[in-house]
Structures are given as structure tokens and as C-alpha cells.
């Protein structure tokens, strides 16, 4: 054990000496490993950060939440031209499901609409995420009120001109003034502010609550009717916890088919999207991104491996005389083999460590510049170092074998 430890220390010294003696040659050789490890770990860190942020942002959503409308969350076998002919969800269908569907905890009729501008006196907020919805949306969207309240079912049914605004909207429009009871203007009419949402932070999927505005969907229907082309109706349903999600999904399909008068053999002209299916779709995309990143970065690692092999062959040639002396005084082939293998691994680890440091620095800089948290996890760093060691090991095998097989007499004579 002590012998191998000394061998490791000796190999480390030889590797450092190679760096010092042939700086340019070693730098160019290690550049491939550095770029390869940097590329792979940068991709893994970016995808991992994206995955963490998405999962964190969606943590408040129930996996069993269901979106019923004329579009699918993921890939579908239904032709695009046929999907475009699907009728939009109607308020009457929402009301029918609300009255006849079993096992419902919350249900809401929403309109996906374009962003809007809100005004209060001389202050404006652009690109507000408007959310015309039913009263149950407070629970479906996990809305947390810091001031005031959410609109109730009676206000939702009659389409009262009330609005709940996000933290950033309230901050921009009202500064230090209490917004509750104030009137804001949107869609050419006045809305009374009855609630302000707690600060949530940026959410990429599901929207940004800090820059949102919730108001009764029936108010929107009164203003624009049910056939507006710039809005997409959707029914959002959350079943009770003890309900079988598959049976619940099938029951929604049966109820809607019955309401729409679809005959046996007719295809559904709507999609029942379970939110958990969206998460699985996101996981598949992230996995594919990882694979593509590995393939692209693999070419850099291949070049880096050739660079390490090249520098090791040169190192063997330069130290032929020394190898001959070591063998002549009793060094075994295994000792020579491990000596050069350790040196190759150490050189590769140096390149990998530089690549990891570059990724770490970039994640810190990027996180400070943009509103997105990039993370270099311990597992990704371990993958980077393991890959570096593996590349060094593979690249050093042939040079180490050639050194170990040298005849001591010929090695000494060649060195002289």
C-alpha cells in the first residue's frame, strides 16, 4: 500500500514536471479534456438547473389537476387539421360538469387570454398576465392573498367588476398607497381592487403571479361574448385525494361525450390533460437534451483523449533512459505501467478540474446577471472528475503498456 502511495506521489510529480517543462505542449493537449468536461458539465448543469427551477415552480400544483380543452399538452396522434376543428369549451359544459361530475374538489372555467395593460391615475403596468376565472381558481392556482380577499362564487357568477392583482402590479401602480378599494382601468372599463397576492417570485410554467390579475370570467364573457378568437376557454378540475385519477379522467370523457352528443365510434373532440402527464413530458424533453449534450460534448472528450495519449507517448520517449535504469535496479513492469497510468489520470484530472472551475464561475456570473438560479451540483462535479479520470485511464493505457514492455538494456542504450 505504501509502495503505491509513493508511486502516486511520484507520478504526480512527473505530471507537474511535464506541465512546467512543456507548458505549451501540455496546455494544448489538456485543452481538449478541459473543453470536453466543460461542455458536458455545462450542459448537465444547465439542464439540471432548468429541471430544478421547473420542479420548484410547479411544486404548488397538484399532479392530478386536469385541464380540459381543445388542445393537448403533449404529442398526439390526432392530425393537426382535425385538432383545429375541435369546438372550444363552453361555460355551459363547465356548469354541467360542476353539477354532474363526482369526486370533484375544485373546478374552474378559465379563459387563456393575451396580456393586458392596467392603469391607475397616471401609472401604467404593461404585459399583465390576465386570468379570467371562476372563484375556485384561488385554490387551483394556490393563490396566497396578502391583502384583501379573492372574489367569491356570487361575484364570479354575476361577473362583478373586481380584480385581484399581483405583488409587482400593486407595487408599480400604487407605490406605498393601500390598493384595496381603489379603481384601476383595464379593457376600457373600471375594476375595483379587492385583493393583493403575496410575492411569489418568477414562475415560467403557469405564469408569473406577481404580474398577474385575477377577475371573474363571466365579466370577460359579458364584454366579449363566447366566440372571441383571442381567448382559449379551458376547464380546470382537481379531484378529491381518494379518487382514482384514471377513472376520474374517463368519467370526464364520458360526461363530455354525452353532453356533446358524440356517438359510439366517434373520436373525442376535446383533450383531457392530466397535469402529471405534462411533468412526464417535461422530463422526457430534459432527458433528450441531456443525451444531445453528451453526444456533442463527447467529440471534445475524444479529442482530449488523443491529446493525453499524445503527451504520454512523448513522455515515454523522453524518459526511456530513466525507465531502463528503473528496470535495471529491479522495477517490475507493473510498477512502470502504474507510474504512467497515474500520470495520465492526473493530467486528465487537472484538465477536468479546470473545466469544472470554468463551469462554476459561469454559473455564479449567470445567476447574478439573470433571474434564474444556475446550479453546479455535487453529483455533476463528481461526474466531471470521474469522466476526466476515465479519459486519462483509457488514453494512458497504450503509452503505459509500451513503457512497461521496454527492454532495460535497449532502453538505457536508446536513452544514451
Question: What do you see in this structure?
Answer:
Helix 1 (2-21) crosses helix 2, helix 1 (2-21) packs across helix 12 (333-369) and helix 4 (91-100) crosses helix 9. The chain is α+β, with helices and mostly antiparallel strands and 416 residues long. It folds into 2 domains: 2-57 and 281-415, no CATH class; 87-269, no CATH class. Helices cover 57% and strands 17% of the residues.
List keywords for this structure.
alpha+beta; 416 residues; 14 helices; 4-stranded antiparallel beta sheet; elongated; 7-stranded mixed beta sheet; 2 domains
Count of DSSP E strands?
A: 11
What radius of gyration results from the CA coordinates?
A: 32 Å
Largest sheet: 7 strands, mixed
End-to-end distance? 34 Å
Helix content: 55-70%
Give the percentage of residues in beta strands.
15-25%
Subcellular location: Cell membrane
Keywords: Cell membrane, Membrane, Transmembrane, Transmembrane helix
Protein name: Putative ABC transport system permease protein
Transmembrane segments: 27-47, 291-314, 335-362, 374-398
